[in-house]
Amino acid sequence: MRIDKYLWAVRLFKTRSIAIDAINGGKVKLNGDNIKPARDVKEGETFTVQTQSIQKTIKVLAFPVSRVGAKDVAAFMEDLTPEEEYRKIEGLKGSRFVFRPRGTGRPTKKERRDIEDWFEDDPAREH
């Protein structure tokens, strides 16, 4: 199975084109080396995937026929990502800074509510 199709099938990327862009951009590596989207994946190989804020390490266990449900992902890949990477997300969650790309303008009402919901779990936040 191609690496771009595998990453999409195990739900690491929302679409295959996003997976291809990540691979071409050097965000997916095998043994520290860049790879191409058409590279075939073998069972037992370990990849590092740089997502938005953390670097995930995954091991290929099996190949799905097509995209699998979130509950079934564990049968096809093993997450070897260190806990420190997941703590990075928690550290970012507590900060008051919300990144918005330049030129996107003010948040809409729905986006503002989503931002408020994100910070609602923060015990340091005062109401």
Describe the structure.
The chain has a five-stranded antiparallel β-sheet. It has a domain at 3-81: RNA-binding S4 domain (Structural Genomics Hypothetical 15.5 Kd Protein In mrcA-pckA Intergenic Region, Chain A), CATH 3.10.290.10. It has helices at 3-9, 16-24, 83-94, 109-120; strands at 28-30, 33-34, 46-50, 55-60, 77-79. 12% of the residues are buried. It is of the alpha+beta class and 127 residues long. The longest helix is centred in the C-terminal third of the chain and has 12 residues, at 83-94. The protein has four helices and five strands, in the order H-H-E-E-E-E-E-H-H. 31% of the residues lie in helices and 15% in strands.
Condensed summary:
By secondary structure, the chain is of the alpha+beta class. Helices cover 31% and strands 15% of the residues.
